[in-house]
Amino acid sequence: MITLTPSPFSPSEALADFEKEARGAGAIVSFTGLVRDRAGDADVDGLHLQAYSPMTENGIEKAAADARQRWPLTALRIIHRTGDMGPFEPIVFVATASAHRRAAFEAADFLMDYLKTEAVFWKREFTKTGNRWIEPRAEDYSDSARWTQTNMETDRNARHK
Amino acid sequence: MADILYFGRLGDVAGTGAEKLDIPATITDTAALRRWLDVEKSAGGAFLEASVRLAVNSEIVVDPHPISPSDEIAFMPPVGGG
To answer: Cβ separation of B81 and A135 shorter than 8 Å?
Structure first.
């Protein structure tokens, strides 16, 4: 299930609900992303997240379907904030469930890389010294590139040498 | 009237996040629209950047893509959430 919400949410409640939904799974992985209170040397007062509905939701649905195709998941949950939020507030929650840990870890990692670099959001940071739009960093893109099929095969071959 | 949406930093450049515009009849594709708006908004090339993608009626398109006077057209700088 996928939720975009302009209101604060509780990751611990989301995880408790997910554990009920995923009952019978051998492995549950969850990730929570929080708003940082520092960016470089500036204090962060808050973030603003813009989405473009329904393109944002449709894209995340497609990434979730990709994850389900690549890993044997028994349950999947994504919550993403939109609008204004303050430091320490949860901005994103991803949970995956599977029979074994590897699939759950990898699928959650894959979904987070999608959300960081491809999900249709624009993020603005408010600091004491001004406001700026944040775009993905080079390492966000290289993290995301790990999941292309060719790169995954190169990795596998490297591990087997 | 076309609905034009400016996301992320392009909202600052355009001075608004969304507006209805009468696009001149001579502007019939996305590449021409970028050039026209860049001049209209004195954007100094911000609308021409390759990293800025356009969506026509919620579908991301490749320049030059045909546009009609009543389309919803979104200017989308690089995306990213989390």
So the answer is: no
Contacts of A119 in chain B (CB under 8 A): 79-82
For residue B21, what is the domain's CATH number? 3.10.20.30
Number of domains in chain B: 1
Write out pLDDT tens, residues A53-86.
Answer: 999 999 999 999 999 999 999 999 999 999 999 9
Q: Quote the CA–CA distance of B5 and A151 in Å, as a whole number.
A: 36
Q: What is the mean pLDDT of residues A29-58?
A: 94
Tokens representing residue A102 in the block: 């590897």
Please tell me the pTM assigned to this model: 0.92
| Domains along the sequence of chain A with CATH | 2-149 (3.90.1170.40)
Least CB–CB distance from B81: residue in A80, A124, A133: A80
Q: What is the mean pLDDT of chain A?
A: 93
Q: Counting beta carbons within 10 angstroms of the beta carbon of residue A111, is it exposed (0 to 12), middle (13 to 18) or buried (19 or more)? A: buried
DSSP label of A82: -
| Residue B81 belongs to a domain | no
In a domain, B12, yes or no: yes
Nearest to B40 by CA among B57, B22, B61, B17: B22
How far apart (Å, rounded) are the C-alpha atoms in residues A46 and A85?
Answer: 6
Chain A residue numbers with beta carbons less than 8 Å from the beta carbon of B8 are 50, 122, 124, 133, 135
